Amino acid sequence: MKKLTIISSVILSSLLILTGCGSNSSKKSNVTSKVKVVKQSSSKKSQKGVAKKKSGSLWNNDKDSRLEDFMKQWGEVMNQTYTKYDGTNNIQTVSGMNYPQDFNSATVNGQNVSMAWDKKGTGKNDYNVVAIYNYNKSSSSSITYAFTLADGEPIVLVNEGSGNNWSETKNKSLKENFVNIFDGKATHVEKPKVSSSSSTQSSEDLGEDRGGYVTTPEAMRGTWYSKGEDGMKKLVISEHEITLISADGETNHAVLYKRTKDTPSDVSESERQSKEEWRSAGNIGANGISMRGWYQLQGGGEHFFTHEEEINGQKVPLVLYGFGANDLTDYVYYPSEDLANQQSDAKYDDINYKF
What we know:
Blueprint (H helix, E strand, L loop, with lengths): L1 H39 L3 H11 L6 H18 L4 E2 L6 E2 L5 E2 L7 E2 L2 E2 L2 E3 L9 E10 L5 E9 L2 E7 L5 E4 L3 H11 L27 E4 L8 E7 L2 E7 L3 E5 L5 E9 L9 H6 L3 E7 L3 E6 L7 E11 L2 E11 L6 E3 L3 H6 L13
Parallel strand pairs: 4-10, 6-7, 15-16
Antiparallel strand pairs: 1-7, 2-3, 4-5, 7-8, 8-9, 9-10, 11-15, 12-13, 13-14, 14-15, 16-17, 17-18, 18-19, 19-20
Helix pairs in contact: 3-4
């Protein structure tokens, strides 16, 4: 009986030891598994995101003030005055968009995205907009910048068209300085270089194959009128833009850029539409401008020339407009509607008309 008791005690002790080992083994296995999971998700990008999220905000008042100071300096260098979204009242562009309200229907490179105002930059949108700046270049053209955080990364989007399609800016200064502000580093504004080969053409790099704006001759700028069988047409020319308005009110607006690369042939329809107002342009001597569609491969372009005629004993400035592969004139534009009406049937010997 005594031997049986001793044997039972030994067996019981062995079972307890085995059970304890099994328990320790299970715990060790769980710890090992958790460590593996952590290691698998510990990329530099993830660590960076986790560190930022702990602060509760990716964007703050200090960064916002630094961006505002930078945009004032940058705008002065670019000879542009930007309006900042104040967090309450929508910014209205001359093309009729209201931001941030219209972000809900915005596209980026023609693709549908989620884009919304988010003061802290921590939202779940594809693009969380932390700052908006707009510059109305003319009565029909504007540049709008949306400073965004996409998955915690600073990205500057720009919209220069008449619609609501955005693209990432190619402007090196804007991109680098927004990153610097986001990372708490110093900003630096450089003055754009001006071409020494032409006093009428800017050579700053605007991105997307644009080597700067092409500048119209001063004598060409203003509002001009041409009367034809279809009614009164209108032509509005500013420093870097040309707008043709048909007799029935249809508007064709063009922003003049110097193209730095050959025109590509494989361009999507959405990309074409996003650059609908862009023109590849150039100066023709001291009194002319030529332009073609940004992605135009075939067909002639459009051309404009300053001209002068003696009308009723006075010298009157005119603008001659034509389209096609030659320099022939399709329409003559006058500086007033009255003159356009009076001279609607006039033909001048020193103008080469197409018809």
